[in-house]
Amino acid sequence: MSNRSILFIAPAFFGYEVAITNALIENGYEVDFFDERTSNNSFLKAVFRVKKNLLNNAINKYYKHILNKIRHKQYDYFFLIKGEVVPVWFIVEFKKLNPQAQLIYYTYDSFNNNNANSIYILKHFDRCYSFDFEDVKRNPVFKLKHLFYTSEFINDSTKPDKKYPVSFVGTLHSSRYKTVKRLLNNIDNTFTFFYSPAKWFFLLEKLIKKEHSNVKWSEVSFDKLSRQQVAAIFKSSKSVVDIQRSGQSGLTMRTFEVLATGAILITTNIHIKEAAFYDPEYIIVLDDLEEAEITGIKERIDGQKTKTAPLFNELGEFYVNNWVKEFFN
């Protein structure tokens, strides 16, 4: 395996692309990483998703620059995550330059949330993976592959201080705010953190989306928490709420991060019951959000067990250093 090389292209997503790169290097690969997007400005990120063609000139210039940098190097693999921006001509040119290379695709979003480019390019890849249960069922080209957790979330304490009965950390979108508020309404000493990528974006959401019209500015942060900060919060929580995006059936990154810390997972994603690791003793699934279920959540949390031993052995395949291995076997 020594000295096998990977061209890795992915969008920047909360530093996870760095964690993946480091995991690949620790597994003995040489990795050249490039951000999929030409810019991570919040406005341009939105344009990439909904009107990519408006930025085609900038995109083509950017990928010509990448091609010139890698032209004289031979790769064993091309590993692409998400693929909303990378142009088809770049993939074709890479294959010409590296005819023996394997092309591997993964998406951590459902195709309801991806743009058309990520579907159009799939025919060029040797293996395709998705985290989304429903996308895998609808498209036989995909193999199901869940997300992962990083080392910060491994529970290294046998007697954790659980000062929060329930916590929530996540991006403000869809009905998350309303659901979290309803869940935590009658529970004391909870922790909540809602993130929005920019003030202008939050203002726009307040104006055009009914579910965000009553969200206070003081309840939203425009600065991200580090993974270390998030991990510390989860390790201090008896339970953590996770709410997936509307139209998405895949298990979020939070799913694995929460369970790795030993906290109880409270999730609205009923598809977790299909996962091999599903254990109702440590995972509360909100099959619906009826009032009776919401008002009884405190009793359900109190009645759940809490893992006091590290989950590494049980969830070890989802630790990022192990998670990357399947792609290159």
The name of the CATH architecture of the largest domain is 3-Layer(aba) Sandwich
Task: Please write the CATH class name of the largest domain.
Answer: Alpha Beta
Q: CATH superfamily of the largest domain, please?
A: Glycogen Phosphorylase B
CATH topology of the largest domain: Rossmann fold
How would you sum up the major sheet?
A: 6 strands, parallel
Which series of helices and strands comes N to C?
EHEHHEHEHEHEEHEHEHEHEEHHHH
Task: Report the β-strand fraction as a percent range.
Answer: 15-25%
Number of helices: 14
Number of domains: 2
Low-confidence segments, given as residue ranges, are 308-312
Helix content: 25-40%
Mean pLDDT reading: 87
Helix/strand-derived category reads alpha/beta
**Overall shape:** globular
- Widest sheet: strand order? 2-1-3-4-5-6
Amino-to-carboxy terminus distance: 10 Å
Q: How many beta strands in the DSSP annotation?
A: 12
Radius of gyration: 21 Å
Kindly list the characteristics that best describe this protein.
globular, 12 strands, 18% strand, Rossmann fold, single chain, 34% helix, six-stranded parallel sheet, alpha/beta, 2 domains, 329 residues, 14 helices
